[in-house]
Amino acid sequence: MPYLHDMWRETVVRRGLDELNTIAYPANSPLTARSDWRDERGKPATTAERLGKDALDPFGTQVAICNCLYGVQATFSEDLGAAMARAVNDWIAHEWLDRDPRLRASIVVPQQNAELAVAEIERCAPDRRFVQVLLLVSGELPLGRRQNWPIYAAAERLRLPVGIHAGSTYRHPNTPVGWSSYLSEEYINQAGAFQTQLTSLMAEGAFAKFPNLTFVLMESGVTWLPGYLWRLTKFWKGLRSEVPWVADPPASIVRDRVRLTLQPFDGPPETATITRFMEHMGSDELLLFSTDYPHWQFDGTDAIPAGLDPALAQKIMVDNPRNTYARLRETTQ
Amino acid sequence: MNVDVLNRTGLQTPNQSKLAIADCDIHPRPPGAGIGGVSKALYPYLSKRWLEHVQTIGVRYRQPWERGSAYPKGQPQACRRDAWPKGDNPGSDLAFMAEQHLDPNNVAFGVLNPLTSGQGAQDPELSAALTHATNEWQLAEWTSRDTRLKASVMTPFEDAPTAAKMIEARAGNPNFAQVLLLTRTAEPLGQRRYWPIYQAAVEANLPVGIHAFGYGGSALTSGGWPSYYLEEMVGHAQCQQAVLTSLIFEGVFERFPTLKIVLIEAGFAWAASHAWRMDRQFAKLRKEVPHVKRQPSEYMRSNVWFTTQPVEEPEPREHLADAIEWMGWDRVLFATDYPHWDFDDPAHALPIKMTEAQKRGIFLENARAVYGFA
Which pTM does this prediction carry? Predict the structure, then answer.
């Protein structure tokens, strides 16, 4: 509230707006927060101090990117979405980034309207602690659609990767075959949502149009990637006359331009299979370390799946993130 | 993918010593049929009321075009250029199909999956009339003329009680191999409105095939409608992931433990990863779905099969063997998708090292376990 402009603060009070938490992460669901990461009132990540103690210190984290999931992208009013995004970003800067020098953040934007989103990106970008642009994977239009391109142009110009996070604006059924009955189904289908949106970015030519832009898939799941690319490559070979601007094989585009955060990894139960699976990934540069804090994806500090080569783990934790985020290179060794 | 027939002729002469195969996805098509239209070949099986209806209103689906599919295909009717019998639609002529595909590829058992059968038509009674006509047409024109071929029970699946009656009516008829549904329905297929279909299928001892495509009306992605046919084709996999998740998490396999589901034409390389993801989320959220008693992957191992075409093509090829190993060699059923453009040739489609048992399983024995043919 203190970060909202007067008119919007009054609107919130006068119209009785509730909090904009979406149905994606019900507050008390086990997935939404690990039990040992909740405070005595059951709430996770309430202060920068608590976040540092839970999510940074135990992992020896030198720098971490915060992605605030608040339903500003889902408001039907673009103006409300823009006002809320602005307030969220100011809140992040003052309540989080100012309080722990290890923290960085993504710029929350009103995804409903590319013009307003660009304005918010440009407003926040001078603060070098904002290191990428945040989009939800399921918005009003597939992410490759050209109405979204001004966002990508601004991000590329400012050397900010576009981070695509699990979540939806709920403009469409939460699975491609209709509304699911259960949260479990919705969450499982987030991986499918990432697959379809990556296809969209590929097919519409976003990678060709913005050659210096990196897309980071966050909380996307990881193990779907190789099998997905085999299928996409096969149909690209068969149907590339429809999308002639996709000149390179999809797997090589992904290798150069797409990164995925580590958690949830969605790995097999057997260590030997994980080792074998990593060969299918075809590159050691794709993964970026993440805890997905406070979401419950692993226990203790076991964020790195067993069976990963230590050299690869080192790349995932240090080298790959540094190579992905220009602004992390400015402030870390 | 398309194969140049001229380069193939020397390899593909009829050869009885070649392994007999089951082809679990063959598309017959009445002459002149297409989305929105009705083939004259079905007229004898339609009442006067429905004949008049299709001639005045046509067949309306949840998509824009009066004729043709929502996304223009890569080539006419998505079919191989060499699969057009003289003057007619691909898949419309049994003799031509036998000569081009069934004989040279030694197909011992072929499952017919008609696609423009009125399934998913908006008017439920029209859908019932057209699917009934398609069932009669399969018997008259195909299964009665070639015993290698088995029909699918087509139903107006959005009206499950009617669909169940139509399945009951075919129970015990050995010419039908399965009940056929499409992936994209009005609601996810695990939901209770569709359960009468599964009940009837189990009672008739028929597997339920779920083929890619459909007309459910939901955006093709949870982020809206994509632009390209390429996206629709790749997206069949994500649609079937959602269907499979729905079947498992709604408890369909608890309610119908003997139900056999065959997922057709949406790939299989995603199966293992999807199982791992489902198991991991289920471990955290199982209290939400107490009716789900076993790990999601266990239902996949006992109740679900995948057809091969279009086979994913990793580099190196051996990665495909890993993907099959992780889902189970007994889960995979060979299919060609004849006469479509992305037909898989049994001689070339699985270029991986397999034991004799694995090969026999994929090309024949797994299908025998599902469909129970002699």
Answer: 0.96
